[in-house]
Design goal:
The structure is a homodimer. By secondary structure, the first copy, chain A, is α+β, with helices and mostly antiparallel strands. Chain A is built from nine helices and twelve strands. Chain A has helices at about 5-15, 20-30, 110-115, 120-145, 150-165, 180-190, 190-205, 220-225, 230-240, and strands at about 30-35, 40, 50-55, 60-65, 70-75, 80, 95-100, 100-110, 170, 175, 210, 215. In chain A, helix 4 runs antiparallel to helix 9, helix 5 (about 150-165) crosses helix 8 and helix 6 (about 180-190) crosses helix 7 (about 190-205). The structure holds a DNA duplex. Chains A, B: This is CRP-like cAMP-binding protein. Chains A, B: InterPro entries: cNMP-bd_dom, cNMP-bd_dom_sf, Env_Response_Regulators, HTH_CRP, RmlC-like_jellyroll, WH-like_DNA-bd_sf, WH_DNA-bd_sf. Chains A, B: GO terms for molecular function: DNA binding; DNA-binding transcription factor activity. Chains A, B: Keywords: DNA-binding, Transcription, Transcription regulation.
DNA sequence: CGTGACATTGAACAAAGTCAAAAGTGGTGG
DNA sequence: CCACCACTTTTGACTTTGTTCAATGTCACG
């Protein structure tokens, strides 16, 4: 039994691979690692070593807030790939932990990049965009899973501000929020009534100001502290390593 | 101003593109579409037409439960790409709605695939795995955002069952659940105390059985009905269209 | 002005969290 | 084989957070 068996059976069931490609796959899944239950496999913030396949056992991908609240973003089962963001040179925005005795196989980074050799540089750019988006989804999971209503609202406002800023649509701690509170509520997993209350309260506390569709983050540092906001998951917009 | 300006400024700030690649990018972002606020841009379940860039305006990506509860999975702002799953031939597992007057540019499907011409078939397989994973993350967002504790637990058990089944690790409505309740709680955004209560209650209702680390989904249809479980987001494991 | 969509407020209610203690479980070594 | 340990699960009482329902405001626009 090869380390890539489980992955292979997933890919085959999706009709994505033939046997030749399967052999190629097995060829790049080189070093097999074994971990005990509880062991950390990839640390948040650590530079990417390579991508991994889960050969056997269960692992979790999780993100913790600074006060200890923890959100498992998803479970990784045999055949699952992770840290496919190697392509982009980004550090991991999450921690991977073995939940049971775990066997993984590492897919070599340069081998992986070789697969893209011959493709347009745009292909990697799109890959990067997809990785980017995944990071935003993960953060959304943590936001809605382990943050209070107040924290959620603050966190979303901060994220929107940062994302809009990159394309020149926000500055001076202010931006146009062209959507109603019930859309915010649907994004945050709250009722629109409660969103209204929280926004009013943030305004009364002097953290934000609202007029029409304009929002101003009056005290951005305080907002960030309030919800434990980190730009790690967005930073890559500005600091990603160049690709070969 | 070209339709890809916002995307370009994102990619450039990540040092991913030079001007030549930017021109190539502009070359494949052909047909520009305009939508009114509230209009549906991509319908859940519809076959992929191509990938899109948001040129101007805001959109949401959302998933609704059959009783109307709605979860916005993320907001799409100018420069964001979406429906990158074209590569995989999967239908959309979510609905894209314009939140404001919206301008998008379509990236032609065959042009997109051409970018991968010359890359190994494995490159597309990895892309497919990433898309797969994103779908699971989206479902996790809906689960934790708009489902009750009872529904969440049922939904997660069903997902794990389906995912394990693909690699032969579950059958007969039963599988080994080798993790503690506090891991489940961390994944579901609940307290472990509450998870314990819910599991006990599901067992008393005759929907599941537990012994050691074994879980049996005694009445899978009822569980699926209980939490509005759809395999759409997992199905691709078995029904994805073949790639060129 | 009047109208309709969106936002705010209050009061009653429900879901899930917290705290604390008791009951299993399984592994270890005597 | 049993006693002991650490850990996980269960249960009950109580608290907190956010929801629901319903009424009231506000504002842009015809």
């Amino acid at each position: 039994m090869s380390p890539t068996d489980a992955l292979f059976s997933r890919l085959v069931s999706g009709a994505l691979l033939d046997d030749a490609a399967g052999a190629a796959l097995a060829g790049i899944a080189t070093s097999v690692e074994r971990h005990e239950a509880g062991e950390v496999v990839v640390e948040r913030g650590a530079p990417a070593r390579g991508a991994f396949v889960v050969v056997d056992g269960w692992a979790s991908r999780s993100i913790s807030l600074s006060d200890g609240r923890r959100q498992i973003v998803n479970f990784m089962l045999p055949g699952d790939l992770f840290d496919l963001q190697v392509f982009t040179g980004r550090p991991a925005d999450h921690t991977v932990t073995a939940l049971t005795p775990l066997t993984t196989a590492q897919l070599d980074k340069t081998e992986m990049l070789n697969l893209f050799r011959g493709a347009s540089p745009l292909a990697l750019a799109f890959w990067w965009a997809a990785v980017q988006e995944e990071a935003i989804l993960r953060e959304q999971i943590v936001r809605n899973g382990r943050r209070s209503a107040r924290e959620r609202v603050a966190h979303l406002l901060l994220e929107l501000y940062e994302r809009l800023r990159v394309t020149g649509r926000a500055s001076d701690d202010a931006f146009v929020l062209p959507i109603g509170q019930s859309s915010l509520a649907d994004a945050l997993g709250l009722s629109y009534v409660h969103v209204s209350r929280v926004l009013s309260q943030l305004e009364r506390s002097g953290l934000i100001e609202r007029q029409r569709m304009q929002v101003r983050l009056v005290d951005r540092p305080a907002l960030q502290a309030l919800c434990d906001f980190s730009t790690l998951y967005l930073d890559a917009w500005e600091r990603t390593a160049k690709l070969g």
